[in-house]
Automatic annotation (TrEMBL):
Zn(2+) binds at residues 284, 468, 472, 498. Residues 1-19 form the signal peptide. This is Extracellular metalloproteinase. It comes from Acaulospora morrowiae. It comes from the Eukaryota. InterPro entries: FTP_domain, Fungal_virulence_M36, Peptidase_M36, Peptidase_M4/M1_CTD_sf. GO terms for molecular function: metalloendopeptidase activity; zinc ion binding. Keywords: Hydrolase, Metal-binding, Metalloprotease, Protease, Secreted, Signal, Zinc, Zymogen. It is found in: Secreted.
Length: 697
C-alpha cells in the first residue's frame, strides 16, 4: 500500500440560520460522513483499572492511558491529543486519536473522564474494532523508506519526497484496510477533485506552489498549497485513514480549505478522489451597551457600564494583550471592527476609539440606517464577546479547555486565537456565523444586517444572536477536546451544536421576575418580531409540542430544526432546577478571597468537599451543561448528551438533581428507554420515545 506519513488536525464551521434556503451561501454543502454505529458512551460501574497502587495520587492521564491500552484496545496504537482538568469538580478529561500504519484515523476518537479520586467515571469510544484480538500492543512497522510522490503531475510540478512506511501483512491482519487497485492520486489531482465537488475551478494549476512541512520530531507532516484561486489561505493537505460504516479503513487525502463563506475539512478517497466526509467549520473601560439580561432594543435600554470585566477571566482588563495596551475595540479576547465591504482582510478595519479614558459612549438612532451607528454596534459586539468569554471562563471554558485568547498567560492551552468579530459584515444579510478551528487558531464571527424590516436592523444589537454564535466555539472545543473541531458536524450532534446556542441565549436573558410560564423566541427583534424557529421555547406542550420523535419528520432533517428540539429539552431541565433551587441574578461566581460571598453562591456542602457546586438553579443548569460537554463523546447523540448531563450532576452534587433532570428529558420523550432504530449518517432513523424515568427516582 502506498501512502504518505502525514498527521493532521481538524476544525469546524457551524451556522446561525433561518429555515429559508436563501440564507445559505452559494457554495454551501451539507456536512456528512460515516455514521459509525459501533461508537458508544459508557459510565462503567468498575471503579479502578490498571496497576496503580494508589489511584488518588496517580497521574489521571496515565490512568486513562492504562485503561485504554489494557482494557479497551490492547492492540491499538493511539496518541493523546488533549488532556486537562476542570478545577471546580476535579475531573480530568483525556482525548485520544487512533493511529494505524503510523497514520491518524480521522474519525476514530476516544475520550476518558477520570475523577479526582483516580476513578474512571465514563468514556466515549469510536476506535476501529480489529478483526482479531491480541493480548498486547505490538509494533509491526518495517524499516522507514522514502516514497516518491508526484505533486501536480499534470501541471509539471517537481516531485517531492515524503517519508513513508512499509505495511506488513501482519499489520493488515488486524484491520480491514481497503487496498484498492491502482496508484494513490497526487495532491494536485485530489485538489482538482475537491474543487469539482464544490463547483470551483482551477484555471491555472501550473501556478499552484507546494511546500512540504514537518514538525521537529516528524510527527506532523503536511503539504501546503498556495495560489489556489478559491482559497483565502494556503490549502493544507495530508494523508490519514477514515473508518467506514463497515469498520473498514480507507486511505484518504485530508484537505483543509478556508474560503470566503466556508471553511472545509474534507476526506477524499486517496485512489479515486471521491469525497467521503465533509465538514464545514462555519456555523452558518466604559461601554454604552445592552447589558447582560437585556436581549435587544425592545427588551430594555443601553447602560453605561464601567470596567465590566471579570478579574479572574480577564485579569488585565479587556484592552490589553501581553504588554500591549489598546484604546480601540481590541484586546486579549476579541478583535471587534466593522466589515461593511464584506472583505476577508480585517486587521486594518475601522474600530471605535475610546481615548485614554477608554470611554466607548456613542449615539444610537434606530430610525436611521445601521451604518450610521456603526460605533455603537461595534462597541456592543466587543462588550458581548468579552462578557461571554469571561462568563464561560468561570464555568470551565478556560485556557486548558481551549478558550479564545491571544495570550494565555502561561496557564496552558494554545494562545493566539482571540475571536475576530466582524460587525455589519457586508458579505450577507439576515444571518450570522462562527468559524471554530482547533485551539490556537482564531475563531471568526460574522454578524450581518437584517433587511426584513425598514429601517434595517443590526444583528450586533441582539445579544441572543451573538451568544448563539459564540456558543458554537464553546461546544465545538469542549466536545472531543480542543484539538478536534469535527465532533459536531451533522445529525443529532450537529443539531445540538445549534441547540446549545439557543439555550444559552435564552437563559441568559431571564431575570428574577420571570417564571416557567414565560415563552421566548430566537432572533425576534432582528427578524422584525417573528422568531426564526418554528416554535417559541416554552414549558407548555401546547405552545411548543416538539418531542424526540419530531426529529423523524421531514422538516427536522436539518441541524437547526434538530437543535430547536434539543434546546427545548434543556429548557425543561432548566426550569426544573430553578423551581427546586431558586434563581440568582449573579451569574458570575465570586472570587476565592471572599469567603462570605462563596457561601452565598456555592452550596456549603460542596465547599466542605473542596469542590464548587452552584447553589441556585440557573447557575447550576449552566454549569452542568458545560461540564457535560467535556464528558460526552465525539459525535454525541441526544441520549449520549443526556447521560453526560446526568453524570455531570452525579459528579457535582452526588446525583441530588437526577430526578429533575430525568423528568425534564422524559417530558418530551427522551426518557429511560428512548432509542433510535436504524440510524443513518445524516441523523435519520426511527426514534422510539420514552416517558419513563429510573425506578429509583
Amino acid at each position: 500500500m502506498k501512502q504518505i506519513r502525514l498527521l493532521v488536525f481538524t476544525w469546524s464551521f457551524l451556522t446561525f440560520s433561518l429555515a429559508t434556503s436563501h440564507n445559505l451561501s452559494p457554495g454551501h454543502r451539507e456536512n456528512f460522513g460515516p455514521e459509525l454505529n459501533h461508537r458508544r458512551y459508557e459510565a462503567p460501574s468498575i471503579i479502578h483499572y490498571g496497576t496503580f497502587s494508589d489511584f488518588s495520587t496517580a497521574d489521571p492521564q496515565e490512568i486513562a492511558i492504562d485503561f485504554v491500552s489494557t482494557k479497551l484496545h490492547p492492540i491499538a496504537k493511539f496518541i493523546v491529543k488533549d488532556s486537562y482538568k476542570s478545577d471546580h469538580n476535579g475531573v480530568t478529561h483525556v482525548y485520544f486519536k487512533q493511529v494505524v500504519n503510523d497514520l491518524i484515523v480521522a474519525n476514530a476518537d476516544l475520550n476518558v473522564n477520570v475523577d479526582r479520586f483516580g476513578r474512571i467515571i465514563s468514556y466515549g469510544d469510536s476506535f476501529v474494532i480489529p478483526r482479531s484480538k491480541k493480548t498486547s500492543a505490538q509494533e509491526f512497522f518495517g524499516n522507514s523508506y522514502r516514497t516518491q510522490i508526484i505533486l501536480g503531475n499534470d501541471a509539471g510540478v517537481d516531485s517531492v519526497l515524503l517519508p513513508g512506511r512499509h505495511v506488513t501483512s501482519e499489520e493488515e491482519s488486524y484491520y480491514h484496510i481497503n487496498d484498492q487497485v491502482g496508484e494513490v492520486i497526487s495532491p494536485g489531482k485530489a485538489l482538482e477533485s475537491f474543487a469539482h465537488f464544490i463547483n470551483k475551478e482551477i484555471p491555472h494549476p501550473e501556478k499552484i506552489e507546494y511546500m512540504e512541512y514537518s514538525s521537529l520530531d516528524g510527527s506532523d507532516q503536511a503539504l501546503f498549497l498556495s495560489n489556489v484561486p478559491f482559497a483565502l489561505s494556503d490549502v493544507r493537505m495530508s494523508q490519514s485513514y477514515i473508518q467506514l460504516d463497515d469498520q473498514s479503513l480507507q486511505l484518504t487525502w485530508d484537505i483543509q480549505v478556508e474560503m470566503e463563506d466556508n471553511w472545509y475539512n474534507a476526506q477524499l478517497n486517496a485512489y479515486t478522489g471521491d469525497v467521503i466526509s465533509l465538514i464545514d467549520w462555519v456555523s452558518d473601560a466604559t461601554y454604552n451597551v445592552f447589558p447582560l439580561g437585556v436581549n435587544d432594543p425592545s427588551d430594555g435600554k443601553r447602560e453605561l457600564l464601567e470596567d465590566p470585566y471579570d478579574i479572574v477571566a480577564s485579569p488585565s482588563g479587556w484592552h490589553t494583550q501581553g504588554k500591549k495596551n489598546f484604546t480601540k475595540t481590541v484586546g486579549n479576547n476579541v478583535y471587534a471592527h466593522e466589515n461593511l465591504k464584506g472583505k476577508h482582510d480585517w486587521e486594518d478595519n475601522y474600530r471605535p476609539e475610546g481615548g485614554d479614558l477608554l470611554v466607548f459612549d456613542f449615539p444610537l438612532d434606530l430610525t436611521q440606517s445601521p451604518k450610521t451607528y456603526i460605533d455603537a454596534s461595534v462597541t456592543n459586539l466587543f462588550y458581548w464577546n468579552n462578557l461571554i468569554h469571561d462568563l464561560f471562563y468561570r464555568y470551565g471554558f478556560d485556557e486548558v479547555a481551549g478558550n479564545f485568547q491571544q495570550d494565555n498567560h502561561g496557564k496552558g492551552g494554545k494562545g493566539k486565537d482571540a475571536v475576530i468579530a466582524n460587525a455589519q459584515d457586508g458579505s450577507g444579510f439576515n444571518n450570522a456565523n462562527f468559524a471554530t478551528p482547533p485551539d490556537g487558531k482564531n475563531g471568526k464571527m460574522r454578524m450581518y444586517v437584517w433587511d426584513v424590516v425598514n429601517p434595517w436592523r443590526d444583528g450586533d444589537l441582539e445579544s441572543g444572536i451573538i451568544i448563539h454564535e459564540y456558543a458554537h466555539g464553546i461546544s465545538t472545543r469542549l466536545t472531543g477536546g480542543p484539538a478536534n473541531s469535527n465532533c459536531l458536524g451533522w445529525g443529532e450532534a450537529g443539531g445540538m451544536g445549534e441547540g446549545w446556542g439557543d439555550f444559552f441565549a435564552t437563559i441568559l436573558r431571564i431575570n428574577s421576575t420571570i417564571d416557567r410560564t414565560k415563552n421566548f423566541g430566537m432572533g425576534d427583534w432582528a427578524n422584525g418580531g417573528e422568531g426564526i424557529r418554528k416554535y417559541m421555547y416554552s414549558t407548555s406542550l401546547k405552545t411548543n409540542p416538539e418531542t424526540f420523535s419530531y426529529l423523524d419528520k421531514p422538516g427536522y432533517w436539518g441541524v437547526h430544526a434538530k437543535g430547536a428540539v434539543w434546546a427545548e429539552l434543556l429548557y425543561e431541565v432548566y426550569w426544573n432546577l430553578v423551581d427546586k433551587h431558586g434563581f440568582t441574578s449573579e451569574w458570575f461566581p465570586p472570587t476565592d478571597n471572599h469567603p462570605t460571598s462563596l457561601a452565598k453562591w456555592y452550596s456549603e456542602k460542596s465547599l466542605e468537599k473542596k469542590i464548587k457546586t452552584p447553589k441556585h438553579g440557573n447557575t447550576l443548569a449552566l454549569q452542568l451543561v458545560v461540564d457535560a460537554m467535556k464528558l460526552q463523546p465525539c459525535r454525541p447523540s441526544f441520549i449520549d448528551a443526556r447521560n453526560a448531563i446526568i453524570q455531570a450532576d452525579e459528579i457535582l452534587t452526588d446525583g441530588e438533581n437526577s430526578c429533575e433532570i430525568w423528568r425534564g428529558f422524559a417530558k418530551r420523550g427522551v426518557g429511560l428507554k428512548a432509542k433510535v432504530i436504524g440510524s443513518t449518517p445524516w441523523g435519520g432513523g426511527i426514534r422510539k420515545e420514552s416517558y419513563t424515568v429510573p425506578e429509583k427516582l
